[in-house]
Specification:
This protein has helices at 8-20, 23-30, 34-48, 64-88, 107-121, 134-143, 203-211, 228-236, 246-250, 284-301; strands at residues 53-55, 60-62, 96-102, 125-131, 148-153, 160-174, 184-186, 196-198, 223-225, 242-245, 260-265, 270-278, 306-307. It has 10 helices and 13 strands.
Length: 323
């Protein structure tokens, strides 16, 4: 057996430096002084007998071997945290810290109602939230920075397990007086020259284009918006039409506007909201409990959301572009 092995603390220093690219910022993230972090990394390099990081006054550059060692360190730290989780959650579901990622087209519409109810149901749960695009959230999940992610499917998130929560119907939003007669509108009846979409990086944009069966419209949208609230204001000012999920409408995104909506008539005119977690996580039972709670909360606050009983598979093709 090797007499001397890297410590978890040394590996944490290495991962923090990779993440922040700066000794001072990495030290702050680890709650140590810069000299302590630097000394820990030098000890690690001495122990391994290799150079992991090239140090200059302006640039921190990892060597090729340093990149490989850091990739492995990320996995080791993640598995160490999971080892601690096994002991911590025994007999105490949803107790202690839980780091959840939520995408921007869900967070502002579901979280305000979700958080108070979760605190009431599990008062000892410390839920830390991180709003990120789908790809960034999935990357953080696999790096061990998040425990689970509230995600809109379909989306390729790697080796994960998931609990499907509910279907979120898509609606077309029109300026007052422009909406067609009837409760719904066919995708081919929408004027693509007036479409307002979210900018690249939001998976809702890709769900909309897939539902319309018009992927070529990605580059033809009249205007790109940074958020659903921005798009609603553009529609309200007569600049075009956009697409909104039911949860946003039920959360009041149209209050104070003259925007009208019609359900999108399409075989895949919805997105499926799911809770996803790493396939290796020992906290699956906790996540299933959390998923059931989220289903009940959603049913009580958003009547347009269609409940799902169990992890039914999605039919649409998995999208592998950034959220």
């Amino acid at each position: 057996m090797t007499a001397y092995l890297p410590t978890i603390k040394q590996l944490q220093y290495l991962v923090a430096l990779r993440q922040h690219g700066h000794f001072g910022k990495a030290a702050d993230a680890c709650f140590v002084t810069q000299s302590t972090l630097s000394a820990g990394l030098r000890e690690l390099e001495t122990l391994l007998g290799v150079t992991l990081v090239e140090r200059t006054r302006r640039v921190v550059r990892f060597t090729p071997l340093g990149q490989k060692v850091t990739d492995k360190a990320i996995r080791v730290i993640r598995e160490t945290e999971e080892l601690a989780d096994i002991a911590r959650i025994e007999g105490q579901p949803l107790h202690g810290e839980l780091r959840m990622g939520v995408i921007p087209t869900i967070a502002p519409f579901l979280l305000p109602a979700m958080l108070p109810r979760l605190r009431s149901q599990w008062p000892k749960l410390k839920l830390y939230l991180r709003e990120e695009t789908s790809q960034a959230a999935c990357d953080a999940l696999h790096r061990g920075h998040l425990d689970c992610v509230l995600l809109a499917m379909p989306f390729g998130c790697g080796e994960v397990d998931k609990a499907m929560l509910f279907d979120d119907q898509l609606y077309v939003a029109y300026p007052r007086g422009e909406a067609p007669v009837g409760a719904s509108v066919r995708a081919d009846a929408i004027d693509e020259e007036r479409m307002l979409l979210l900018e690249d990086g939001h998976c809702l944009k890709d769900h909309v284009l897939a539902a319309c069966n018009r992927p070529e419209l990605r580059a033809e949208a009249t205007m790109m918006g940074t958020s659903l609230h921005t798009l609603v204001q553009m529609v309200d000012n007569g600049l075009g039409v956009t697409f909104l999920p039911a949860m946003a409408i039920d959360a009041g995104i149209l209050e104070g506007t003259d925007v009208d909506t019609r359900a999108l008539q399409s075989a895949h005119g919805f997105r499926r909201i799911a809770l996803v977690w790493r396939r290796s996580s020992p906290r699956e039972e906790e996540f299933q409990l959390l998923a059931e709670a989220l289903r009940l909360i959603a049913a009580s606050i958003a009547p347009r959301l269609a409940s799902i009983d169990g992890p039914a598979p999605m039919e649409p093709i998995i999208l592998r572009v950034a959220d």
